[in-house]
Specification:
InterPro entries: TPR-like_helical_dom_sf, TPR_rpt. Keywords: TPR repeat. Pfam families: TPR_12 (PF13424), TPR_8 (PF13181). This is UDP-N-acetylglucosamine--peptide N-acetylglucosaminyltransferase SPINDLY. It comes from Eucalyptus grandis (Flooded gum). The protein is an all-alpha fold and 367 residues long. The chain has a domain at 1-37 and 48-107: Serine Threonine Protein Phosphatase 5, Tetratricopeptide repeat. 78% of the residues lie in helices and 0% in strands. The protein contains 18 helices and no strands. Helix 10 (205-217) runs parallel beside helix 12 and helix 11 (221-234) packs antiparallel against helix 12 (239-251). The protein is globular, with a radius of gyration of 23 Å. The chain starts with a helix and ends with a helix.
Length: 367
């Protein structure tokens, strides 16, 4: 876990030999691991230029991988990592081409098959197309669980991959308002797969965290708290797990505990996640009617990550609660400019505009 020392070692190797394929590949993988995970998805974006450092690092990873391929163009694992780099920066077309190249080079490799299935799942999440891609990903993940070599793909990882398929199925079924029986089936399938991953390695905090997140997304708050507490018991310095536990407590109407947990997350987090926790804490204070404290937390969030869409949306809700509809509409508009896919801001903008028109109409009637 000593990322800084690892980076320095790889940098030293590359300075001595700028075409060293292993050093370039490993350094790129480290950059993707460290920075790729903090490039936000739809609904969590900030203003233009807010993620310069992260995107610069991912682009550097891409260049390292392209250089490595010049020395070893038949290395399928380099093509897989390059696909990940392209996907992270939003170049989905080139990402798909890299995966196709990897499969042609080593079609029987379990790691390659896993990576291809993983990217199919990401494509489904991006496009919300519930058909071919997800079915292919599910079949691939199931075959890896059934036939996989544990020396290449560890069993908990394989089960976790299958759970990802079921979780996306659940999101799509829930989003399209399908029958409750189908919704329950895919929810149970995801839970089963995640529990199988834990059974394979009960000490792995990551799988407990995934199960906690799934329970949180399906609004089983008490269960999510149980699993997230198991996560922090195994990985006590994981700020993301503490933050998600805070969200679960917040949504289950336990504000005092939620506040303590959010503050614990803030004490542990680095610069890359603090803005999100401040935004969540501001939302908690809003729900408690503590509007001054809410504004302070949300302002801090926006100072750390200018243009952060969820913080603008939450600040807009504070202004609605205070009756300041003009400022509320400004905040919702800023949220949508930063991230047009933040549906909550769209809905809140429409409601705030309607409330504003109603207030104007009532005022004219009184006059």
């Amino acid at each position: 876990g000593k990322m800084e020392q690892s980076a320095k070692c790889f940098q030293g190797l590359i300075l001595k030999d700028q075409n060293h394929p292993a050093a370039l590949m490993n350094y790129a993988a480290l950059l993707l691991c460290r920075y790729g995970a903090v490039v936000p998805g739809a609904g969590a974006n900030a203003g233009e230029g807010a993620l310069v450092d992260q995107l610069t690092a991912v682009n550097l990873a891409k260049e390292c991988l392209l250089t490595a391929l010049k020395s070893d163009p038949k290395a399928s694992h380099i093509w897989i990592n390059l696909a990940d780099a392209y996907y992270t920066i939003g170049d989905h077309r080139n990402s798909s081409k890299c995966l196709e190249k990897s499969v042609k080079l080593d079609p029987g490799c379990m790691a390659t098959r896993y990576a291809v299935a993983l990217h199919r799942i990401k494509d489904v999440e991006r496009s919300q197309d519930p058909y071919d891609q997800l079915s292919l990903a599910g079949n691939e993940m199931a075959s890896i669980v059934r036939d996989g070599d544990s020396a290449i793909i560890q069993a908990p990882v394989a089960w976790s991959g299958l759970a990802m398929v079921h979780k996306v199925q659940h999101e799509i079924v829930a989003g399209f308002g399908k029958e409750s029986n189908e919704l329950m089936d895919v929810e149970e399938s995801a839970t089963y797969s995640l529990k199988q991953a834990i059974a394979e390695d009960p000490d792995d905090a990551v799988h407990w965290h995934q199960l906690g997140l799934h329970s949180l997304c399906t609004r089983h708050f008490k269960e999510s708290q149980k699993y997230l507490k198991a996560t922090v018991a195994r990985m006590s310095k994981c700020s993301c797990a503490w933050s998600n536990l805070g969200i679960s407590l917040h949504l289950s109407e336990e504000p005092s505990q939620s506040e303590v947990v959010y503050k614990r997350a803030l004490a542990l987090t680095g610069a890359e996640h603090a803005h999100a926790i401040f935004s969540n804490l501001g939302n908690l204070y809003r729900r408690l009617g503590q509007y001054g404290r809410a504004r302070a937390m949300l302002t801090k969030s926006l100072e750390l990550r200018p243009g952060y869409a969820p913080a603008f949306n939450n600040l807009g809700l504070v202004f609605v609660a205070e009756g300041n509809l003009e400022e509320a509409q400004y905040c919702f508009n800023q949220a949508l400019q930063a991230d047009p896919l933040l549906d909550a801001a769209k809905s809140n903008m429409i409601k705030a505009a309607a409330m504003s028109r109603l207030c104007v109409s009532m005022s004219s009637c009184i006059i």
